[in-house]
Specification:
Layout: H1 19-22, H2 29-44, E1 52-55, H3 59-63, H4 76-81, H5 95-107, H6 112-125, H7 127-136, H8 138-145, H9 149-155, H10 157-160, E2 167-170, H11 177-185, E3 192-196, H12 212-226, E4 233-239, H13 245-248, H14 263-280, E5 285-288, H15 293-303, E6 309-311, H16 312-331, E7 341-344, H17 348-365, H18 369-373, E8 376-380, E9 383-384, H19 421-428, E10 432-435, H20 445-454, E11 459-462, H21 474-480, E12 486-489, E13 496-497, E14 503-504, E15 507-508, H22 515-525, H23 532-544, H24 563-580, H25 593-600, E16 608-611
Parallel strand pairs: 1-16, 2-4, 3-4, 3-5, 5-6, 7-8, 7-10, 10-11, 11-12, 12-15
Antiparallel strand pairs: 8-9, 13-14
Bound molecules: 1,4-dihydronicotinamide adenine dinucleotide, pyruvic acid (PYR) and magnesium ion.
Length: about 625
């Protein structure tokens, strides 16, 4: 891996949208903000007249194609050319009018889950309108199509089911997997596949076939935040059964109603899928999402050297958390290597974070791997991960982080002989406490206050999703530490009040702030692998955009409103790193990365259609 560690800086502030990114960058703030907003507006909503598409669809087939349908925005001329006269009401609308109408309709739905269903149905009808609407109300609507509301939609998938989306590969139909896959991608140039086996969806566990909801939500976020062309993305659910009794006992369950396939048969099934991607789509990025803890790391290691494979829960979460921590140590004027880390929940996310931060400590501060490992205390269902838990309770991937028993011989345990979080906090006096356990409320008042006694500015990141599983409500953590905690959460939370009455922005430390950029950077450079160097380069770039580096009372990470601009920067850093490592698969040069990235982004604009038999279908 050829890469140099670079301290966060603001070199890239000219090209991002947030005012927080731009303070101190040459022209007056107002002028800079104006330029940036104009640039962002152009990126998000370029003039549709600039684009011309050759389209081969006609009449109803055009109106029912979500990619090409424009609804009432078809011009009179297009209506004549495409057999739409009489199929649409007379008035031609602009996209602005369509968004206004759709937003009014959305607001007539009261509950978040109803809004989620409405947006899903809009997506099935008209992609340009769907993504335009989401872009215009990014923060508000991301929480509807992603965490927290998507968790509820997934749990209710079989009951809310109306129309299928994506590719369903069920274990009993494995004989026709290749045919089914080819049928789905026929005529398409797929660059991204997001797949899940749905064993650990967000924090709500095994959701069987409903897992398609996370693949398509993650895929939509790729489009929304990184401009991935939705026609080039495929969402997949690998339906290997479910051990969720509620689903198995539900006669309306639409997945394969069987217990989960495990062991050799499971591995063969996954391998068949990966190999057919390697055969038919050798350049596409394969994104794994929400696999169970026993498979996630194992599958990543198995395939990452032979294909561009990415596990979001491990690598995406590791990267976004590293960026948040880099910003936090920037505020406390300390180093990553100075911290003592307690990670509560040693699953995919917990391990991914530990490894990512450990690797960064080695790179930044020249600490040996062994010394760096010692800075981490991992905690899981059986309390502290220490030697005497034995191989039944310690996955091989955790071995580097196991604490020696002697270190804990004088520490009180519970009846089961486990060392619980409070005792760990008392002994370790952590400066960083991260939650990815799915155990809502685990960071109790005592835990947080004890942590505060041991350090002036505790860094607390309760990352579990959805919102009701957060380890501590950030408002409480803020109150219990008299506003001194540096906080970020996995799902959106409102600002907390500082003792001086000021709002403290709770940054969203969600992998969506970085994975679209990591994936886009890899796709853009057509790199053969997603390397650790590329991921760290992306995390560094995101950290450099932290508003907290300018104002310590601002959020640790860019506001979600700025997520498209931040992800573009991440993508550029990742692609540049691919060049530095010599693993790019494109013939253009490193200097062209930014222009190529901006050009490649798909924008939700209609453009003008011309009928052409050889055109898009
Ligand atoms: N903010 C973000 O970007 C991300 C957040 N997450 C969230 O983190 C949580 C975990 O996700 P994954 O690591 O993918 O799941 P996972 O299933 O791989 O890991 C969960 C771990 O927590 C442990 N655990 C369960 N109950 C516990 C308890 N009472 N005390 C301590 N540990 C306990 C489990 O044994 C398991 O090792 C989920 O809520 C998920 O939504 C995950 C990925 C990204
Ligand atoms: C955000 C995410 O990937 C998760 O909660 O699993
Ligand atoms: Mg996930």
């Amino acid at each position: 891996m050829r890469m140099r560690w670079r301290k966060p800086n603001n070199r890239h502030c000219h090209s991002v949208a947030s005012s927080a990114f731009t303070r101190g960058c040459g022209p007056s703030p107002t002028q800079v903000q104006l330029n940036i907003l104009q640039k962002l507006a152009k990126i998000m909503f370029p003039m549709s007249s600039e684009l011309v598409f050759k389209v081969a669809l006609h009449g109803d087939t055009l109106l029912t194609s979500p990619r090409w349908n424009k609804g009432t925005a078809f011009t009179k001329e297009e209506r004549k050319d495409f057999g739409l006269m009489g199929r649409l009401p007379s008035r031609v609308n602009t996209i602005e009018e369509q968004c206004e109408r759709a937003y009014d309709q959305l607001r007539s739905h009261e509950s978040p889950i109803q809004k989620n269903s409405f947006l899903q149905s809009l997506k099935e009808q008209n992609w340009v309108l769907y993504y335009s609407l989401l872009s215009r109300h990014l923060k508000e609507l991301t929480s509807i199509i992603y965490t927290p509301t998507e968790a509820e939609a997934i749990a209710k998938y079989s009951h809310l089911f109306r129309r299928s989306e994506g590719l369903f590969l069920a274990f009993p139909d494995r004989g026709s997997m290749e045919e089914d896959f080819l049928e789905q991608i026929r005529g398409k140039d797929i660059e991204l596949i997001v797949c899940t086996d749905a064993e650990a969806i967000l924090g709500i566990g095994d959701q069987g076939v409903g897992g398609i909801g996370i693949s398509s939500a993650k895929s939509a976020i790729y489009t929304l935040l990184a401009g991935i062309n939705p026609t080039k993305a495929l969402s997949v659910t690998l339906d290997v059964g479910t051990d969720n009794e509620t689903l198995l006992n539900d006669h309306l369950y639409v997945g394969w109603p069987s217990g989960r396939v495990r062991g050799v048969e499971y591995d063969k099934f996954i391998d068949k899928f990966v190999q057919l991607i390697r055969k038919h789509q050798p350049h596409c990025l394969l994104h794994f999402e929400d696999f169970g803890v026993t498979n996630a790391q194992r599958l990543l290691e198995l395939y990452r050297n032979e294909h561009s494979v990415f596990n979001d829960d491990i690598q995406g979460t590791g990267a976004v958390t590293l960026a948040a921590l880099m910003a936090a140590v920037g505020v406390t004027k300390s180093k990553l290597a100075d911290q003592r880390y307690v990670i509560f929940g040693a699953g995919s996310a917990g391990l991914g974070i530990a490894k990512q931060v450990r690797d960064a400590i080695i790179l930044t501060d020249g600490v040996s791997r062994e010394e760096a490992n010692k800075k981490f205390y991992l905690v899981d269902r059986f309390g502290l991960i220490k030697q005497s838990l034995g191989p039944d309770k310690i996955r091989p991937a955790l071995l580097e982080f196991v604490r020696p028993d002697e270190e804990w011989s004088n520490v009180p345990t519970n009846d089961a002989g486990e060392v619980e979080l409070l005792e760990i906090v008392k002994k370790v006096r952590p400066t960083v406490l991260i939650g990815c356990s799915t155990k809502g409320g685990a960071f109790t008042e005592r835990v947080v206050r004890t942590m505060k006694e041991g350090c002036e500015r505790p860094i607390i990141l309760p990352l579990s999703n959805p919102s009701n599983l957060v380890e501590v409500d950030p408002k409480d953590a803020n109150d219990w530490t008299e506003g001194m905690a540096l906080l970020a959460t996995g799902s959106p939370f409102p600002p907390a009040k500082m003792p001086n009455g000021k709002d403290y922005v709770i940054a969203e430390c969600n992998n969506a702030l970085i994975y679209p950029g990591l994936g886009f950077g890899s796709m853009l450079s057509q790199s053969r692998q997603m390397t650790d160097g590329m991921i760290i380069a992306g995390a560094q770039r995101l950290a450099a955009l932290s508003p907290a580096l300018k104002d310590p009372d601002s959020g640790l990470l860019p506001d979600f409103q700025d997520a498209p601009a931040a992800n573009l920067e991440v993508a550029i850093a990742v692609a540049e790193q691919a060049f530095d490592e010599g693993i790019q698969g494109v013939s253009w040069s490193r200097e062209e990365v930014r222009t190529k990235a901006e050009d490649k982004q798909w924008k939700p604009v209609y453009g003008r259609y011309e009928y052409d038999e050889q055109g898009a279908k």
